Amino acid sequence: MTHPTFVVHHLERSRSTRVLWALEELGLPYTLKVHKRHPKTMRAGPEIKAIHPVGRFPVLTVDGVALAESGAILDTLADDHADGRLKPAAGEALRRYRYWLHFAEGSLMAPLLVALIMDQVRGPAVPFFVRPVTGMIAKSVNGSYTWPQLADLLPPADAAVAGGGWFAGADFTMADIQMSYGVMAALARVPGADKYRNLADWVARVEARPAFQKAVEVGGPVLLG
Amino acid sequence: MTHPTFVVHHLERSRSTRVLWALEELGLPYTLKVHKRHPKTMRAGPEIKAIHPVGRFPVLTVDGVALAESGAILDTLADDHADGRLKPAAGEALRRYRYWLHFAEGSLMAPLLVALIMDQVRGPAVPFFVRPVTGMIAKSVNGSYTWPQLADLLPPADAAVAGGGWFAGADFTMADIQMSYGVMAALARVPGADKYRNLADWVARVEARPAFQKAVEVGGPVLLG
């Protein structure tokens, strides 16, 4: 069987590991282009804009056509290149698949991003004489927005994977791949997140998958720092 | 033709106007449940958690089954209740549809949310003697994150709707509905956004649609403040 030519533009330590992982799950051959973060800004350079105008990672080219947005890439791979794998065909499982596919970036990432920004706001780069104020601001934003949001979002995610299941139900799907970055970041960074035992067990099941291990082997660790 | 029973749980002045608008575009009858924001916190109360465990808006129930996440709701309506309308069947238009459907919440909303939080950080509720510091923080976060992000994200969106088109191409789709909140918020709030003439023209085309007008008539204005 001949496949299209897949090229993954991957940013080290980023959400783009998900696309490598999806291709590994499907057994599809691809070329990997690794883009480095600038050691000071931690951002990638602008050269990715020649591949896709928005200039963010990941970008997957399929026979030269550039796809972006992780959720759109994973859903496209499931529909066009998976022979019915990794996406439920209908019913409750498809409803759950769609929900978590959008939830990952549409709901979960926003408070995680704000938490990261607040770490910068009160961080060591801030002059010592303003740190009482910056610490107060970070505490206030996290207390009124970040932690209450995550206290709404994480328990239903934890419940969704109770009993050894996956986000769409009994079968592993692209929704699990899409949820991986946010769940791993939440468990690593959110105070008290060790109470989400089902999510921790789900991460252990993820890490046991050979395709995930291969993606990390070729793309590097998922999380920054 | 009999339809399923649709109930929209709508939060005033929020992204949930999009679901009303989609149902109006499809001519599907629905029951509207309007939820008010608390006058101080501007948040909704917890009663929506009885309908959907995550407790966020919008929620659409279809014969009693609760759907959430705007992108997932719109894509489900397109697949199951639209007779082929508002979603391209294949090809380049479907690729564009998927991209903008995910971009709206996956990329565009994060910097807009951070801009709103920074408005709070330097806002009038902050004691006057710390305002020089809070103003400096807001300027620093917006200068290093918010405005550079939006300067990457908005030009390709502007280019996508040049020449009187829609986000997926020549035809209006759910991707336009999904993009509406972020584009309207960006044009209203981002300094210098009046340069995005194609997006402003696209908003004018949106506002001319009878279904959009009906959604605003029954659901109220889209943006806060």
Please report the number of helical segments of chain A: 7
Mean pLDDT of chain A: 93
Strand count, sense and closure of the main sheet of chain A?
Answer: 4 strands, mixed
How helix-rich are the residues of chain A, as a percent range? 40-55%
The ordered string of helix (H) and strand (E) elements of chain A is: EHEEEHHHHHH
Low-pLDDT runs of 5+ residues of chain A are: none
Structure, explained:
The structure is a homodimer of 225-residue chains. Chain A has 225 residues and is of the alpha+beta class. Chain A has 7 helices and 4 strands, in the order βαβββαααααα. Chain A has a 4-stranded mixed sheet with strand order 2-1-3-4, covered by helices on one side. In chain A, α1 (17-26) runs parallel beside α2 and α3 (91-121) packs parallel to α5. Chains A and B meet through β4, α2, α3 and α4 of A and β4, α2, α3 and α4 of B.
